[in-house]
Specification:
By secondary structure, the chain is of the alpha+beta class. It folds into two domains: 1-66, no CATH class; 70-161, no CATH class. The protein is built from three helices and eight strands; from the N terminus they run ββββααβββαβ. The strands form three sheets. It has a three-stranded antiparallel sheet, with no helix packed on it. A three-stranded antiparallel sheet has the order 5-6-7, covered by helices on one side. The longest helix has 15 residues, at 143-157.
C-alpha cells in the first residue's frame, strides 16, 4: 500500500491565484507529479475538467473560518465505541463506517485486506495506540442507511462546539 502526504487546502485558486471566499464552491485535484502527489484547488468558475495526471478530484465548499466548529470526541472514545460495536452484529455497517473515519483520523492504519470464510472482503486494521489488530468486514450500506449512520455518529462522537 502506498502512503502519500497530502497538503491541506491552499485557500487559493491554482489557476487565478485568487483567494477562495468562505462559502465559495471549489474543486480540488490530486495530481501525480513524478513520485509525488500535489494538491491543486480551483474556484468553480476556473474549473472545466481535472488536470492531466489527476489521480482523484472532488467538489467542496470553502468553510467559514469564523464559524463555530464541531470537535470530534477524543480518539480513545472513538476507539472504545468501535470496540463495543464488535459485540453488536446488527451494527456491522456502522462499525465499518467508523473504521473508515478512524483510518482518516489516523487512529488506526489499514494494513491489508483479506477474504473471510464467508467470502466477504475484510479490512485488517492496526491501532498503534493499543497495539491491537482489528478485522472489519466491508459492509457497504444503502444511501438511506448511510444517512442514518452519519446522524448516529454525529450525535455520539461530536464533542460540542469549539
Amino acid at each position: 500500500m502506498l502512503d502519500f502526504e497530502i497538503q491541506r487546502c491552499t485557500r487559493r485558486c491554482a489557476r487565478s491565484d485568487r483567494e477562495l471566499a468562505p462559502g465559495e464552491v471549489f474543486f480540488s485535484a490530486l495530481v501525480a507529479e513524478g513520485a509525488d502527489v500535489a494538491r491543486f484547488d480551483y474556484a468553480e468558475k476556473e474549473w472545466s475538467e481535472p488536470p492531466e495526471g489527476t489521480i482523484c478530484w472532488w467538489k467542496s465548499k470553502m468553510p467559514d473560518p469564523k464559524a463555530n466548529r464541531l470537535q470530534w470526541a477524543p480518539n480513545d472514545a472513538m476507539l472504545h465505541y468501535f470496540e463495543q460495536l464488535a459485540q453488536t452484529p446488527e451494527k456491522a455497517d456502522t462499525r465499518f463506517v467508523l473504521a473508515l473515519l478512524m483510518i482518516r483520523r489516523r487512529i488506526v492504519r489499514l494494513e491489508s485486506s483479506e477474504t473471510d470464510d464467508q467470502g466477504r472482503q475484510v479490512m485488517v486494521l492496526y491501532c498503534p495506540r493499543n497495539e491491537k489488530d482489528y478485522r472489519v468486514p466491508e459492509i457497504h450500506p444503502t444511501d438511506t442507511r448511510v444517512e442514518e449512520i452519519k446522524e448516529e455518529l454525529a450525535q455520539l462522537l461530536f464533542a460540542g462546539q469549539g
